[in-house]
Structures are given as C-alpha cells and as structure tokens.
Amino acid sequence: MSVQLHALLILCLSFTLGGCTYPSHHWGEWNDSQLLPTIQKLMKGYNRYLRPNFNEGPVEIGMSLDIASIDAISEINMDYTATIFLRQRWRDSRLVFPGNESVSVDGRLVSLLWIPDTFIPDSKRSFLHDVTVENRLIRIFSNGTVLYALRITATIACNMDLTKYPMDRQVCTLQLESWGYNLQDVVFYWTRGNDSVKGLDTLRLAQYSVETYYTSVSEAVYETGQYPKLVLHFALRRNVLFFILETYVPSILLVVLSWVSFWISQSSVPARTCIGVTTVLTMTTLMMGARTSLPNANCFIKAIDVYLGICFTFIFGALLEYACAHFYTMQHQTIEDFHRDLLREFNESNGNGSLPIVTSTQPNQSVEIGSAADEPKEQAAHSDTRNNAASKEETAGQGCSLSSVRNASRRVASVFTVENPHNIDCHARTVFPAAFLFVNILYWLYYLFL
C-alpha cells in the first residue's frame, strides 16, 4: 500500500510543479519501485535496443510451433488460415541471476526486453490475440535464457496445383524469417527438429487430412543481405468422398438416365425428347454449380471439369442418337409408302390392261414407270431415234460424265442409308454403356495412380 501511495505522490508532484519529474530509473511505463527486486536488478543498465552478444557473434534463436487449428483453406484465394503458438528461445547474458529458478513476468514487460523481429513472409493478414490481455508469455531463466511465446492467427498464402482437383495433394508451407537482423546477427534453428512442431498429427479438417510434414532450415536472400529462415512443410490430401457423393454420383445417374430413351419407342417423340433435353439442362446446372467454388482466374483444367465434360458428352450424344434414329425412321417410312403406292397402282392397272414397269425398287435408284398402251408410240419414235443417231453420238461424252457423277452420288448416299433404323437403338444400348465404362476406367486410373 505504501508503494502505491509513494508512486501516486510522485505523480501528483510532477504535475503540480509543471515539470517532468520522474523516478531515478524509468523503463517505459514501469519504474524500479514497481518491479520485483530481481527484475529491478536485471533492468539496471539494460539496453533493449542492442541485441545480446553484441559484437561477439550471432544470437542463436530456437523455435517451436504448436498448430492449434487450421480454420479455413481457400482454393479461390489460394491461402489457409491457421492459429499457432509460436515459442522462441534465446540466451541473453545480461539477464543472468543467481539460483536455479525461473521468473515468469507480465507480458507487458516485453517493452523492456530485446526480442527477435520474427515475421511470416507469406502472411496476408495476421493478428495477436488480446483477450483478456495480449497473449504473450515471457519467462526468464537463471542462466539468462528467455522464453517468449505468442498466440497468432494468420492467413498465409499457399500455391496450389488444382489440375487433379478434387483428387489433389497440396503442399503448403509456414515460413519464419528475421526482418532486420541478418545471418551475422541472428541464427534460427528448430529446437527439436521435426518434433518441434506439435498439433498436426491430431488436427481434424473438413475436406483435408494431414498426410506428412517436416521442417527445414534455409536462408532468405534479398537485396539487403542474407537472413535466417525456418520452414515447416506439410502435405494435405483432399478427401474425395464428399465430391463423389455431391458431384460424381449425380453426374453418373444423369448419364444412365439419358440411356432410358434407348428403350422407348421411336414413335414416342415427346417422351424421348423430354428425357434428352432435361438431362442436358440438368447436367449444365451441375457443371455450373461445381465451378462456383473454384478459382476462375487461373487456367487449370481440373479433373472434375474433365469428368463433367465426359458426362455431358455422353448425355448430348444420347440426344443426337435419337435425332439420327428418328431421321432414318422417317426416311424409311417414306420409301415404304412409295413402294406401297406403286403396288396399289399395279393392282389398279391390271383391270385396264396396262402394266407398270418398275426398273428399280432401291431408294437410291431411279424408278421408271410405263404402260403397254404406249408401245405403238414408242415404235414410231424408234425410227426417229435412228435418224438422230449421229447427233446422239456427239452427246455421248456428256452422258457418260453425267452418269458417272450420278452413280458416284448414289454410292455415297447408299453408305448413309440404314435399312432398319430400329437397330440403331439396339446398338446404342450396348455401345454407350461399354464406352462410358471404358472411359471411366481410364479416367480413374490416370487421376488416382499417375
């Protein structure tokens, strides 16, 4: 109580006299009357602006990490947000005191001590937790070792390769560097190697699982010099089960649904058209929904885009299959109606003594129809034809060329002619599932094992 009254009296005197009267030793917001006797002795003559071992070699700073949580991993921004406990240890010979005990002091005393200028170079945003006070820990050991711990939440950049998304494996890093002190001033090291990092083994993430992690020591080279650098590498494997249930299974079911039209009669035009158009539109909506959560700025062709494109191709192919089948069915019906009309005319002509002459019944050949009543006229015209034989010989060359072009066009047309259009659906029932199964085998083998 007397100490507080003494401090209050000194403060009142300083304001009433209008001067700047302070106690004999002033350390920031603290004075020697408010410090413990041990800390008071340590602080006498201590200069926090000079690093330990000044002009005697670099300061060795050991570090360890506890990963409390990885809150979010964003593929759009290519970063992750983590809460970490950063612990730094170094030895300051100016803080040696007798005994074998350690002293834990208030975190606000950090303004009285020299501390490393460690920072995270890939950090986009970060903050120090301050509930209920700033989450700092300072512990001074009798041999001069200082333990300085912080609780930090930072959003750190992570370059991701999304070509195999969602069967990808991402390797992210957490880097620690010194901002102003180069290798001649400070040296970083992990206190226990890979065991210096805790928490990753028990970490549980929504879409990822921590596969492996390891630590390394390197140097950061800038224009201003070489600086110490510690790196934590950890690999994240994405859990594909969520995407199988959300995207892959619905797309497979849509492809199978498009095959239902192969078992519907070709005469049911509204039913088959409705199935084809509905599956195409649904697949388009599914593709758009799968791309909303992914970055659009990069040029990655992701594995899920390839699979959705394959499914869309098969669905659209089923719709085109019906269009082709319907076209050949209508063409076949037209030819059958034409033959039926010829047969009816033949039956009707039997009563009149005239006989239709059908030179060809193939759809790709011309059909000539005549009657027996026209034979006298043909005989009369035959004599005129003989008189004009010379003129016909002159045009024989043109006739040969036209007939060759006509025959070639007929052969080409016969290739695209389907004698039984109903076989198109029968073949499609086998070809489409077999092709889809083959493409799936190639797809999963490539993205899972290559």
Describe what this molecule looks like in 3D:
- It is a single chain.
- The chain is an alpha+beta fold and 450 residues long.
- Helix content is 39%, strand content 24%.
- The chain is built from 9 helices and 14 strands.
- The protein has helices at 2-16, 37-43, 241-258, 269-291, 303-349, 375-387, 389-394, 396-415, 422-449; strands at 26-27, 30-31, 59-74, 79-91, 102-105, 118-119, 123-128, 136-141, 145-157, 169-178, 186-190, 197-198, 208-222, 225-238.
- Strands 3, 4, 5, 7, 8, 9, 11 and 12 form an 8-stranded mixed β-sheet that branches. A 4-stranded antiparallel β-sheet has the order 6-10-14-13, with no helix packed on it.
- A hairpin with a 2-residue loop joins strand 13 and strand 14 (225-238).
- Mean pLDDT is 79; it is low at 1-28 and 357-383.
List the topology elements.
Elements: H1 2-16, E1 26-27, E2 30-31, H2 37-43, E3 59-74, E4 79-91, E5 102-105, E6 118-119, E7 123-128, E8 136-141, E9 145-157, E10 169-178, E11 186-190, E12 197-198, E13 208-222, E14 225-238, H3 241-258, H4 269-291, H5 303-349, H6 375-387, H7 389-394, H8 396-415, H9 422-449
Parallel strand pairs: 3-11, 3-12
Antiparallel strand pairs: 1-2, 3-4, 4-9, 5-8, 6-10, 7-9, 8-9, 10-14, 13-14
Helix pairs in contact: 3-4, 3-5, 4-5, 5-9
